[in-house]
């Protein structure tokens, strides 16, 4: 921090700039962020003031910026590491409601905002990291699709919202690290948006870009249309990373229990979804069967109508031929009446022919509809068979689990019975051991008695031997 002038009515531009930056990210200049293993340590700095001091101080602004860069880098390390570990333990696709993922985006937003140059507009000064992110499509052509998608989103009205949407789409594409590396390598382009000692212009930015490679193992899915990215408040939640002696002991067990409960809920939800799908498909099959029977009846009626029309047409032909023959043989006086009857018969024949053509067209339409219905029924039957196979496999797995449970229970009972038998055998062995010990003692005592008797006999024999001599 540069030297502050004596107190006046208006603060100096340097002091105002430092105060504004400190109020935006108050943790950056009031605390020193460091890492203790997997935890976050915050140490308060007493030598930094957020308001102008009446007495001039001699703080180096480069030191403050370096401290902010180090804090942001440590926060990024903790956020990325915690996100990867929690996502791997969770074992499913992440969405926008996942708390570690939300904190990661907040930390990335602070990293991209660090050292931004303020652009003057008619509404005042504006700081937005959307400008640097727009440059990525010029460096990496694959990013053009993300930028176009962000611009086409109807709910985004501010550059901050567009930048947040861009970060989410880049993470979904698993190209966030690649895009950040390409952007950091072009410092001559970044100098238009950032101060010389900003995080994106220094070594810490390259380190964070390297750490982002680990996020490629995460699968994320976001729904941008219903999410309000313009009005979100980016505040870092330090409670997720601060060390707690009481809660850290059971964190591993709680994580395992949470993972098991998540898997159980996922299987139950999948089962409910499959049951609902099977019910819907069964209802569609019933509806198609009803429509098929209805179409069959209509087809039979149309065939009967065609047969009757053909019979009427044959009859009309016979009548017309009979009338023609009678006209040739009959008197000329009756030809006018017969001609009128013939014209009426021809008119009737024309109408019947047109009606037959209409019926044939309708029949063709009904036949095509029936073929489409049969094809749809086959597809639905195939889908139902697949769903039923999936249900059968799930039920088989459930039966296997139950059989395994019964087998384990049986083994447990047999092991308990074996333990009881072994304990009884052990007690019997102890009794026999005690009996053998008593027998050994008796044998030892009898052996001592025999030794004494032998000694007495020896002494008696020794006494008898000299007497004989």
TrEMBL record:
The keyword Membrane applies. The keyword Phosphoprotein applies. Residues 271-362, 422-463 form a coiled coil. It is found in: Endomembrane system. GO terms for biological process: regulation of axonogenesis. Its main location: membrane. GO terms for cellular component: axon; cytoplasm; dendrite; endomembrane system; neuronal cell body. Gene3D superfamilies: 1.20.5.170, 1.20.58.900. Residues 95-227 form the RUN domain. SMART domains: RUN (SM00593). Keywords: Coiled coil, Membrane, Phosphoprotein. InterPro entries: RUFY1-3 (IPR047335), Run_dom (IPR004012), Run_dom_sf (IPR037213), RUN_RUFY3 (IPR047334). It holds the Pfam family RUN. SUPFAM superfamilies: RUN domain-like (SSF140741). This is Protein RUFY3 isoform X8. It comes from Enhydra lutris kenyoni. The lineage of its organism: Eukaryota, Metazoa, Chordata, Craniata, Vertebrata. The gene is LOC111148935.
């Amino acid at each position: 921090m540069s030297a502050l002038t004596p107190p006046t009515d208006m603060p100096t531009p340097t002091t105002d700039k430092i105060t504004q930056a400190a109020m935006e990210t108050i943790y950056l200049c009031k605390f020193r962020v460091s890492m203790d293993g997997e935890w976050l340590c915050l140490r308060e700095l007493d030598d930094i003031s957020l308001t102008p001091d009446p007495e001039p101080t001699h703080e180096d602004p480069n030191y403050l910026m370096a401290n902010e860069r180090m804090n942001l880098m440590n926060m990024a390390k903790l956020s990325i590491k915690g996100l990867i570990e929690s996502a791997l333990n969770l074992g499913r696709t992440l969405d926008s409601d996942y708390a570690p993922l939300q904190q990661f985006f907040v930390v990335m937003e602070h990293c991209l905002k660090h050292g931004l140059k303020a652009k003057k507009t008619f509404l005042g000064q504006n700081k937005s990291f959307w400008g640097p992110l727009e440059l990525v499509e010029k460096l990496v052509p694959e990013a053009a699709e993300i930028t176009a998608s962000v611009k086409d989103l109807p709910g985004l009205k501010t550059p901050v919202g567009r930048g947040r949407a861009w970060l989410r789409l880049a993470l979904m594409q698993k190209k966030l690290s690649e895009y950040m590396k390409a952007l950091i390598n072009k410092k001559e382009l970044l100098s238009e948006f950032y101060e010389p000692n900003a995080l994106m212009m220094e070594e810490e930015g390259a380190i964070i870009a390297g750490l982002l490679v680990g996020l490629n193992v995460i699968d994320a899915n976001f729904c941008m249309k219903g999410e309000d990215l313009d009005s979100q408040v980016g505040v870092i939640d330090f409670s997720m990373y601060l060390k707690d002696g009481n809660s850290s002991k059971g964190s591993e067990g709680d994580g395992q229990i949470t993972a098991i409960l998540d898997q159980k809920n996922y299987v139950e939800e999948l089962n409910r979804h499959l049951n609902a799908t099977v019910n819907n498909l069964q209802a569609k099959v019933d509806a198609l069967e009803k429509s098929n029977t209805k179409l069959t009846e209509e087809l039979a009626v149309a065939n009967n109508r065609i047969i009757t029309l053909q019979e009427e047409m044959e009859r009309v032909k016979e009548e017309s031929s009979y009338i023609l023959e009678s006209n040739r043989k009959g008197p000329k006086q009756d030809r006018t009446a017969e001609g009128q009857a013939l014209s009426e018969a021809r008119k009737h024949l024309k109408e019947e022919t047109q009606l037959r053509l209409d019926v044939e067209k309708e029949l063709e339409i009904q036949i095509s509809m029936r073929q489409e219905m049969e094809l749809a029924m086959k597809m639905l039957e195939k889908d139902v068979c697949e769903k039923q196979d999936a249900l059968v496999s799930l039920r088989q797995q459930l039966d296997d689990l139950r059989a395994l449970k019964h087998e384990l229970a049986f083994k447990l009972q047999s092991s308990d019975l074996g333990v009881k038998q072994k304990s009884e055998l052990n007690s019997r062995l102890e009794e026999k051991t005690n009996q053998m010990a008593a027998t050994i003692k008796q044998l030892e005592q009898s052996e001592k008695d025999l030794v004494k008797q032998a000694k007495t006999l020896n002494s008696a024999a020794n006494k008898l031997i000299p007497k004989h001599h």
